[in-house]
Amino acid sequence: LKKLLWFCGFVSLHACSAEHYVLTTENNHLCFPLKYVVKIDESVMPPGNYDPSGGGYDISLIFDADELATSVADYQKIPLSLGIPGYQKMYVMLAKPLALKKIDPVPSVGVNLEAAPQLMRLEKDEIAWQVGEKRDQGYFHWGQCSNTFDADNSFDCIRDLVTEDLTMSYVIHEPNLKAYPAIDEFLIAKMAEWRCAPDSETDKPDR
Amino acid sequence: MPDFSISTSEQTALSTKNLERFWYSRLQKKDPIARIGYALWCKSADDLKRAIAEGDSQYWDNKGFTYWDLMARSTVTNLAAGLEQAGFHGTFRDMRAKIKEVGLEVARQHAIFVKIDQKNQLGNTPGLLSLSQIAKYHHIAFAKFGIPASFYGGTWLSVVPDNVEFKLYGGLYCHDCDASDKPQGSLN
Description:
Chain A has helices at residues 2-9, 65-71, 180-194; strands at residues 20-24, 29-33, 37-39, 59-63, 90-95, 102-103, 111-113, 116-121, 129-135, 138-147, 155-162, 167-173, 195-196. Chain A is an alpha+beta fold. Residues 1-12 of chain A have low confidence and may be disordered.
């Protein structure tokens, strides 16, 4: 098995579905090592009037804090909440690529984030306020942040990293905001590493 | 079209950590996840019975108090087992407090996902979540506490906790019992 995985790591388009979960996007096949995979169980809730669609692919990825701290410059491991020993893993949701549109910030509302001045808070809400990222052409959607309602007025965010093939929405905490470009690079490199050849096994389609 | 938006009063309920008020408000909007949320955090069994009796029976899936009480009890049992798996050990009161923290984070994530769903016009009905979205925000909330994602759904319907787990943790599901040390259950 070790030899097989070693071989896979050095071949750009490989087929290793036995040890991987295969996600078929519009342009690619991605072979995720099982240790990163969280399958979405939809059989859990009691019957009810749920929305039959929405929410992206039925698979997410999860990354250990130690791997992030090793691979991502300036990544700070976030302790588990309220005294439980250990560090939080990073949860990454996958969906089809979002269409990114230019945003014109409202001057009376827009505030640059202290930890990452290229990011601007675009709304005054407490929950899921949109954040824009400054690029050469103006501001574009970066993600959304929400107050945690803790005593220290902190917030956390869901960063929407959009590539040609996917939107990768990952949870990021305030201390790591300045490291988001490196987290983006890490995830993009992982996806390139996990591209694989077409295979007979595919997951459920994106909804 | 029903309005599933997160209201200002629901945001206030979250910021003041009032889970009962948050989920009761969602219940009035027929948000399907609110049936479990309210069953978990209502002040008394009578309140839950009243909500079911006065509510739309279709919304409650034509099931009565016993069923929803079991759903809530299973949820608490599962959360307690998940917290112990994450490395948390404490008294009955500690565990109740920790479960409430998890409940607050789940409610906050619910609100976040509803707002994103509404803004981005995801799915068929803005603000109404799919089972996939509900699973994902539970995973996010659980990650904050080190509860493995597999503990989402360890109980409801698919795998009801066994008698040993109910005996160990079942007493943690109670209304107005935060002041007591150990009304039932076998936690220290």
